[in-house]
Specification:
mainly alpha, two-stranded antiparallel sheet, 2 helices, 3% strand, rod-shaped
Length: 158
């Protein structure tokens, strides 16, 4: 605002102009005081809202931290469980493999015995066949009698 200027009169300034200016300044001061009051109320409300938001932010940070901790703990537990499952599966697989190997060893031992038995049976059968062939070669058929005498004897009887 501009500075007011007043007319100079006999005993000072124009009293009505000064009173108007003072009234105007008083009105402005009153308006400004009202605005300051409103601004102070807004400042208080804004400060309260800021405090609420800070509190909510801190809650969110704590909540986020607790969620992260929970997620980390779940991940650790999951990893531990997965390792236990893998370990158990490895032990089971090792047991199954050792049982399968033991079973295969038993089967191979049985096959080996059968092979040896088959070889001895083959040798024994071969020896018996050779003996049988030798006996067949040495077997002599008796000579057949002359069937003519039978025919002659039949003729006589008739």
């Amino acid at each position: 605002m501009q500075r007011p200027t007043f007319r100079v009169m006999k005993n000072g300034y124009d009293r009505f102009a000064v009173d108007d200016a003072v009234e105007k300044y008083a009105s402005q001061v009153s308006q400004l005081e009202q605005k300051i009051g409103l601004y102070q109320q807004q400042l208080i409300e804004t400060t309260r809202q800021l405090d609420e938001m800070k509190e909510k932010y801190q809650e969110l940070v704590r909540s986020d931290e607790s969620r992260r901790e929970a997620a980390d703990q779940i991940a650790r537990l999951s990893l531990r469980e997965a390792n236990e499952i893998i370990s158990t599966a490895q032990k089971n697989a090792d047991m199954i493999i050792s049982e399968a190997l033991a079973s295969a060893r038993g089967i191979l031992e049985d096959l080996s015995r059968l092979y040896e038995q088959a070889g001895s049976v083959k040798t024994e059968a071969s020896e018996q066949l050779e003996k049988l062939l030798h006996d067949l070669d040495e077997f002599k058929l008796p000579e057949m009698p002359d069937l003519r005498w039978l025919q002659e004897a039949q003729k006589k009887l008739r």
